[in-house]
């Protein structure tokens, strides 16, 4: 299959793909320089793109290709987790406006029961899927309660804080060429002469988009030959025909085939996608997976220890890695330089640090933000939080009172961390030891995925292991892979014995 790859994981993923006898198309200049192979400009069957927060990748495209890529990527490491996207780019979905905001509307999307509930089908959270429809993307005034038919233009990872973005104009295609509402031909490049030449070549192909659509050529088309341009346009036209047929037949064919939008009172709102030309998967890489990707990348080019771990932390850290690798040849056997990373990018003593608590079903919960009171060269970070009074502490069977402090001791790469709760006078109220994927201390947040089972040490010294049943249920639901669950159980047993 043909795959387009972009982002901080591109070199390692390209190496994986080539090793599995797949083709990488529309390769970036750094990738073309690093690999001694030819990269075609053919239309991609799927794309792999780094998420905005650099924690993983999104995969979108032909459903079969997406499934193959999912298997390839989750095999990278024990803490690589994947969730099917219920709103892949290109999907046409009905929904109801739940809220109007300053710049757009929040839409409850009718994704259907089969699109949620596990990492094999949806976000896993069981919650309604919301989308965001900017007012500029709908040719009508919309209010709460209105029903709309929309297409997903940009999706969002289940752990992200943003919603998928929606539009009421249909588009199809990717890579070389897309089709959008309009007439004529548009070339999305800055070189006017090249744009005119490509527009003229389009006329020579003799392939006409459906009525109401126009071809939009991307930058990759400038390097494509006539056969590749023809294949890309033929695929886009076929996709447009299928999409228009699916949407038009459901709506009775009484509207422009390139538009959807506000539904009339008499129209039937569909549950589930009217059209789903693409499949989608989100893959989150844990610390062990990032280091495994380092090893794969090292087969291609100079790669420092913790290359992907550092790059995932921030844009400035990513640039720092590029600079360091450009001026020296990193020792492949060197330890991860945690002290240097913290000194340069954080966290440092006195910083504020969030504890971002991932869940195996794809959700991300922020447990709170605290002050960093200590950072050690061995990878240890201590975070202190003042607790809000009221209620009780989970499983500790003690009240949460004014003046209580939670002291969380985290260590980079460790499969667990303890939080000790103390009263205002320093009395220990109990310690909660969380079992999780290996901890990563990024500049502004600590991240991991919670593995459900925990070990508690009560104020009287009693040790208790909890939530094994929740872990078992998570495995049964398909949220937690069995090897990861077995690792969690093993860590919990060791903690029980140690405490």
Give a short synopsis of this structure:
The protein is an alpha+beta fold and 499 residues long. The protein has 4 domains: 1-80 and 285-336, no CATH class; 92-168 and 260-281, Nucleic acid-binding proteins (OB fold (Dihydrolipoamide Acetyltransferase, E2P)), CATH 2.40.50.140; 172-246, no CATH class; 352-498, FomD-like (FomD barrel-like fold). The chain is built from 11 helices and 25 strands.
Structure write-up:
The protein is an alpha+beta fold and 499 residues long. It folds into four domains: 1-80 and 285-336, no CATH class; 92-168 and 260-281, OB fold (Dihydrolipoamide Acetyltransferase, E2P), CATH 2.40.50; 172-246, no CATH class; 352-498, FomD-like (FomD barrel-like fold). 26% of the residues lie in helices and 29% in strands. The chain has eleven helices and 25 strands. Strands 17-18-19-20-21-22-24 form a seven-stranded mixed beta barrel. The chain has a six-stranded mixed β-sheet with strand order 2-1-3-4-16-5, covered by helices on one side. Strands 6, 7, 8, 9, 10 and 15 form a six-stranded antiparallel β-sheet that branches. Strand 18 (364-375) and strand 19 (380-386) form a beta hairpin. Helix 1 (10-19) crosses helix 6. The termini are far apart.
What is the secondary structure topology, with strand pairs?
Blueprint: E1 2-6, H1 10-19, E2 23-24, H2 29-34, E3 46-50, E4 56-61, H3 63-74, E5 81-84, E6 92-100, E7 104-109, E8 129-134, E9 147-154, E10 165-167, E11 172-174, E12 177-181, E13 185-187, H4 192-205, E14 213-217, H5 226-250, E15 261-262, E16 279-284, H6 287-298, H7 307-311, H8 315-327, H9 338-345, E17 352-358, E18 364-375, E19 380-386, E20 405-411, E21 416-422, E22 428-436, E23 440-441, E24 445-458, E25 463-466, H10 468-477, H11 482-498
Parallel strand pairs: 1-2, 1-3, 13-14, 17-24
Antiparallel strand pairs: 3-4, 4-16, 5-16, 6-7, 6-9, 7-8, 9-10, 9-15, 11-12, 12-14, 17-18, 18-19, 19-20, 20-21, 21-22, 22-24, 23-24, 24-25
